[in-house]
Amino acid sequence: MKHYFAAFWRENRKFLFLLASIVFFKSAIADLNSISGRSMQPTLLDGDKVWVNKLAYDVRVPFTDIFLAEVSDPSRGDIVIIDSEAAGKRLVKRIVGLPGDTIYMRNNTLVINGQPADYEIIASDTDSLIIREQLLDHSHQAMLSDTYSSRLSRSFGPETVPDDQFFVLGDNRDNSADSRIYSFIPRDQIIGRSSSVVFSLDSDRNYLPRADRFLTELQ
Fold it and tell me: Do the beta carbons of residue 187 and residue 74 sit within 8 Å?
């Protein structure tokens, strides 16, 4: 048996080393995350595969949640990947409120520290609006729906974001389970930041590639 394992190692050590390197890279440095659902439309679409930078904020021991060093603080407007204990699953949302911010929402209008966000309508159809939302020093697109069931989560607060926690929202404001449901997100549950779509497959068209979304930068 000992000779068998020695021979196996000699014949496969390059492959095993490559496999271990890939697993290490995905655990500690960067990975791909699949987007499922509509909660981040129009920024992210169902079927997008996004790049996740796991070193954007913190360095951790590979394969664990053990913190080693802080790289930077999450910023307003960042699209983050969250291992949410409250939701019991991975979430992809946008950071809207930072520690110490007072957040207030009424009929989907955001007020941060007493300053209302600015809104500009970009496009509209029979049941939704695409808007540009200006939050203090950051702007991005968001979607609003006109269905009755979507109106239940349009108000929040006012509440102050605790230390080392963040208030996150989906860009599809009326179809997103986010901090309005799961409350504030602890920093240690944020596993990385996404800034680009790597590739995208359209489930409504037999998973054909959306070529126009390959390697697109996120705002």
Answer: yes
Read off the pTM: 0.85
The C-alpha angle with vertex 215 and arms to 213 and 216, in degrees rounded to 5, equals 60
d(CA 159, CA 162) in angstroms, rounded, equals 9
Q: What is the pLDDT of residues 158-174, one digit of tens each?
A: 999 999 999 999 999 98
Tokens describing residue 8: 């196996």
Query: Rounded to an integer, what distance in angstroms lies between the CA atom of residue 188 and that of residue 204?
Result: 36
Asked whether the bond before 99 is cis by omega within 30 degrees of 0, the reply is: no
Where do we find the tokens 């309005």? 180
CB count in 10 Å sphere of residue 60: 18
Pairing of strands 58-60, 67-70: antiparallel
Q: What is the pLDDT of residues 186-215, one digit of tens each?
A: 999 999 999 999 989 988 888 888 889 998
Name the residue among 196, 211, 214, 172 with its Cα closest to residue 33. 196
DSSP-assigned states of every residue in 77-91: T-EEEEEETTTTEEE
| Mean local confidence (pLDDT), 122-135 | 85
Sign of the CA dihedral running 106, 118, 127, 212: negative
DSSP 8-state code for residue 150 = G
Evaluate whether 181 touches 167 at the Cβ level (below 8 Å).
no
> Active-site positions?
39, 93
Give 18's pLDDT tier (boundaries 50, 70, 90): low
Q: Which helix (H) or strand (E) holds 199?
A: strand 196-202
Domains of the chain with CATH codes: 2-217 (2.10.109.10)
